[in-house]
Specification:
- Helix content is 24%, strand content 29%.
- By secondary structure, the protein is an alpha+beta fold.
């Protein structure tokens, strides 16, 4: 990460913490001093710090539980880094591929959205969606902007026809968000999980990218 970031003439000044982040292949959208862009493999150290902060918020008392990972469980940085490193290098439609977009604020990454391959090769025309925003930046349009950037990119990829997402039934903000950007609820698996003694539904949502 020791490489100094360069700035083109006329570009807004990027926050100091982004020094070394690549702009290669970036999909950018500037709004309210934010930059939404696609990350590259050299960005992983910065992104993983953000991802760990987000993971620790799940079920922390102020944020509802949004993942199966236990709040007290250690963040598996090395395993996640390896998956991302391999996935970002893989072509869309290849086993294990992934792409990630982040919202860069003045002082830190505010949120992220990821697209990744399904485990089954027969579902290579579909991608799984994950999205997360840090607590101080929620209800500011960050998640919707990230999802829209990922959807726009996915529509340009001929290998993809559908986007899929799985959300806990009690996570009403996430369900509303997906529906706002065009996802449709296609299934609700009642009592799919038992988390901390509570029954949790698993909601499946899809977005069709194009007609074939």
């Amino acid at each position: 990460m020791g490489q100094r970031a360069t700035q083109r003439a006329g570009e807004p000044t990027r926050p100091a913490w982004t020094a070394g982040l690549t702009a290669a292949g970036a999909v950018r959208r500037r709004y309210h001093r934010r930059v939404i862009r696609q990350i590259d493999r050299v960005d992983l150290d910065v992104f993983l710090r953000h991802a760990e902060l987000h993971a620790k918020e799940s079920g922390n008392g102020t944020t509802i539980r949004f993942g199966l990972r236990e709040p007290s469980a250690p963040f598996e940085r090395d395993r996640i880094r390896q998956l991302l490193d391999n996935g970002l290098a893989a072509g869309v439609g290849s086993p294990g591929w992934c792409r990630v977009w982040v919202d860069e604020g003045p002082s830190e990454m505010r949120g992220h959205v990821g697209l990744r391959a399904h485990a089954q090769a027969e579902s290579r025309h579909r991608a799984l969606v994950s999205v997360g925003v840090l607590e101080p930046y929620r209800r500011q349009g960050v998640a919707a902007a990230l999802l829209n950037a990922a959807i726009l990119w996915a529509r340009s990829e001929e290998a993809l026809t559908w986007l899929d997402s799985e959300v806990f039934g009690h996570n009403e903000p996430a369900l509303r968000l997906h529906q706002t950007v065009g996802f449709t609820e296609v299934a609700r698996l009642t009592d799919m999980f038992r988390i901390a003694g509570e029954k949790v539904d698993d909601v499946r949502l899809t977005l069709k990218l194009r007609d074939e």
